């Protein structure tokens, strides 16, 4: 186990370091190619043109480290080194096949986001592209969300919806400096721990890499941000979040003492999902399209209560840590423990709802 901890740390550090190197490079490329977010109103809260190629920087860093990691695993298995005691060549080959399709889906997510950043796609075209990406991830990349449903068609439909939901949730959630990157870094850290506890070595390495890449980008994206991830980045890390939530095993009938662990991914990603639900409800009640941005997000509500934008982001991150931390005892706890912790998470979200309503009365 100690050796694996070193490998998880190496995966995190490689992703973080390379992203910290690549992000300034893509910041320069964005400035030279004119791919900038030029403020035209107060929606995003920044006062100067900001590069939009952060998503590309994260993706390239992720892809390089992922490719190098797969090469190391293949070589290790062939030479019968450490990894060969845990990973077979056939198992790695099967995982690599799915991984190739996930890389294709991730590439599609980044490209779709870049096109949207440049040309502002219509909602229909954007959703259509997301559907194709989700289709690849689910049918070929092995992203499956079943909720104990045995019907393959229904399960595939749920899985496709899940992937699209996460891409859009993170897209909505990326509304303040460092907010989305930090939240997905936290979520990836929790998925790394759950996968490691469950002896899912490959998924633990994968999640640790995702955490590292987000942390490396956060260094430049935290307030005051010198680069934005853009739609390319929000689509990319949203897809990664969907993959981790689906592929990290949280419920094991032979180990889990209740069925509550199936909710662990939703708890780890509770804030982006809850925020999406709230803004969709608010925009629908206001008779506005739910895909049009506004200032009704959790972070905006905290600002309206008197917090600075960095303080609002920090509060969201601390709340994500508080809710996500309940995933661990739910994973190994009995029914009563899990039930109490689920109620505790709902109460935290209830407190946030009250704060949102209080802030809304000040509009």
Explain what the structure shows:
The protein starts with a helix and ends with a helix. By secondary structure, the protein is mainly α. The protein has helices at 2-33, 54-79, 89-119, 123-139, 152-173, 179-197, 201-221, 230-247, 264-268, 270-285, 298-304, 309-325, 327-332, 335-360, and strands at residues 36-37, 50-51. Helix 1 runs antiparallel to helix 2 and helix 3 (89-119) runs antiparallel to helix 4 (123-139). The chain is 72% helix and 1% strand. A two-stranded antiparallel ribbon has the order 1-2. The protein is built from 14 helices and two strands.
Write a brief caption for the model.
The protein is 72% helix and 1% strand.
Layout of helices and strands, plus pairs?
Layout lengths: L1 H32 L2 E2 L12 E2 L2 H26 L9 H31 L3 H17 L12 H22 L5 H19 L3 H21 L8 H18 L16 H5 L1 H16 L12 H7 L4 H17 L1 H6 L2 H26 L3
Antiparallel strand pairs: 1-2
């Amino acid at each position: 186990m100690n050796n694996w901890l070193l490998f998880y740390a190496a995966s995190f550090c490689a992703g973080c370091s390379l992203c910290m190197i690549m992000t300034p490079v893509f910041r320069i490329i964005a400035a030279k190619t004119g791919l900038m977010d030029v403020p035209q109103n107060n929606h995003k809260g920044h006062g100067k043109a900001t590069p939009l190629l952060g998503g590309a920087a994260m993706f390239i860093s992720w892809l390089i480290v992922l490719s190098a990691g797969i090469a190391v695993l293949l070589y290790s298995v062939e030479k019968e080194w450490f990894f060969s005691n845990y990973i077979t060549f056939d198992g790695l080959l099967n995982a690599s096949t799915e991984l190739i399709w996930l890389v294709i889906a991730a590439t599609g997510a980044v490209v779709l986001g870049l096109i949207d950043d440049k040309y502002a796609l219509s909602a229909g075209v954007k959703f259509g592209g997301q559907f194709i990406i989700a289709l690849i991830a689910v049918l070929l990349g092995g992203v499956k969300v079943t909720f104990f449903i045995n019907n393959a068609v229904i399960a595939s439909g749920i899985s496709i919806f899940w992937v699209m939901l996460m891409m859009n949730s993170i897209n909505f959630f990326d509304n303040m400096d460092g907010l989305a990157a930090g939240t997905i870094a936290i979520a990836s850290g929790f998925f790394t721990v759950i996968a490691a506890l469950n002896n899912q070595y490959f998924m633990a390495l994968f999640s640790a890499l995702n955490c590292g890449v987000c942390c490396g980008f956060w260094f430049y994206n935290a307030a005051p941000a010198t680069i934005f991830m853009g739609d390319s980045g929000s689509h990319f890390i949203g897809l990664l979040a969907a993959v981790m939530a689906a592929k990290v095993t949280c419920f094991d009938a032979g180990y889990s003492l209740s069925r509550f662990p199936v909710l662990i991914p939703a708890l780890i990603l509770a804030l982006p999902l809850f925020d999406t639900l709230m803004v969709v409800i608010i925009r629908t009640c206001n008779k506005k399209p739910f895909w049009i941005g506004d200032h009704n997000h959790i972070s905006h509500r905290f600002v309206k209560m008197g917090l600075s934008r960095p303080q609002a982001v920090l509060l969201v991150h601390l709340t994500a840590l508080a809710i996500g931390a309940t995933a661990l005892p739910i994973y190994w706890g009995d029914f009563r423990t899990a039930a109490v912790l689920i109620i505790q998470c709902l109460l935290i979200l209830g407190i946030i709802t009250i704060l949102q309503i209080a802030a809304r009365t000040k509009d």
